[in-house]
Amino acid sequence: MNKDKVRLSENHRRSLSSALMTVEQMLIDMEAVLVSRIEGCSYEVVRDVENETISRNLKTIAEARNRLCIIASKYDTRKYSQSLRKII
Q1: Could you please report the per-residue DSSP string of 11-29?
Q2: At how many degrees (to 10) do helices 10-35 and 51-74 cross?
Q3: Cβ contact 54:34 at 8 Å
Q4: Quick one: 77 exposed, middle or buried, by C-beta within 10 A (0-12, 13-18, 19+)?
């Protein structure tokens, strides 16, 4: 067994996996807002920050996602695969 891995009970592993997935999805959503123009019929995101702020936040998001991967590897959480067909 790899010394860097931490063994969790199945219940704890599922809980951690769920939390990591939630945080990662929020980071993905934040990244999408920063790189895409969002303008719907009832909701829009106004770009009221400088490009430097956007770049800094994108770097922070990338670092956070990298750290999530490190945690997922350390605790050997399972990757959840979502079918695009189910999403649609």
Answers
A1: HHHHHHHHHHHHHHHHHHH
A2: 160
A3: yes
A4: buried
> How many angstroms separate the first and last alpha carbons of the chain?
40
Range of the domain at 57: 10-87
Q: 44: which strand partners? A: 39
Global pTM value: 0.83
19 within a domain of the structure (yes/no) = yes
Residue 62, token pair as written in the block: 């990338």
55-67 pLDDT tens trace: 999 999 999 999 9
Query: How many domains are contained in the chain?
Result: 1
